[in-house]
Amino acid sequence: MLVNHKRRYSKYLLHEGDEVIFIVGREKENKWLKASYNPINIVLEEKDYLILNKPAGVLSIPSRYEDSDALVNRLLGYFDQKNIDIKPHVITRLDRDTSGLVLIGKNAIAHARFSELGKDSLIKKYHAIVHGNFAENELKGIIDAPIGKKDNSTKHYVLANGKASRTKYRVLDQTKGASLVELQLFTGRTHQIRVHMNYLGHPLYGDHLYGVEDNFARQALNCFFLSYDDPFSNQKKEIKIPEPADMKKLWKQLKNPSC
């Protein structure tokens, strides 16, 4: 740490008007992480972070044993092609088969500063296509149901002793046997939307872990909206993307089965 261009230690007492510079060392390299040069869809890129539109079928963070083409691997390839030594930090991750907006820090400081934002300063909204129709008095609401795991299960459940979990939902449209729903997370539990919608009796199309068998290839869930207070510019920013082609096609088919 430098104070007024002189090296100081953490016990040094700061005074009004002091200029403080933190010198951050090079981040430790994960040798098992390999670069992938498959393309990424950049929605916004800033000096300290970027926002991507993740396709379905791609992990956000690779498993040590399973995947070398996750979003992080593709980002390593992207930065390598630009000859930039950056270690990406996933701030808002999505499940493999969920598509949409993902916030990536370019350094540990960006990760830390975004992680400090409160729930009102970093908002994610999703669109989901679910089985079944909602009653007139259930077209919007908040699901307040704790989520946890049972012993030796890969699935998550609504459990009395689970972690507090809250999801806001609003039905946008309905057709015979299916509904288009907008959702917002107040907590970030694993599979939260999928578990909560199944708990309501409206599992997602394509969710073969929590739902019912259908012909959609992946869970019909897309993070279409992200708003945040930029910790570097102190500006409020909003990002919105259109629905992915496969979900648009599914909803069109559900609305017009003869097409």
From TrEMBL:
Domain (Pseudouridine synthase RsuA/RluA-like): residue spans on this chain: 48-198
Entry superkingdom: Bacteria
Family annotation (Pfam families): PseudoU_synth_2
A biological process from GO: enzyme-directed rRNA pseudouridine synthesis
Catalytic activity: a uridine in RNA = a pseudouridine in RNA
Stored CDD domains: PseudoU_synth_RluA_like
SUPFAM superfamilies on file: Pseudouridine synthase (SSF55120)
Coiled coil: none
Any GO MF annotation of the entry: pseudouridine synthase activity
PANTHER family: MITOCHONDRIAL RNA PSEUDOURIDINE SYNTHASE, PSEUDOURIDINE SYNTHASE
Protein name in the entry: RNA pseudouridylate synthase
Species this protein is from: Lactobacillus rodentium
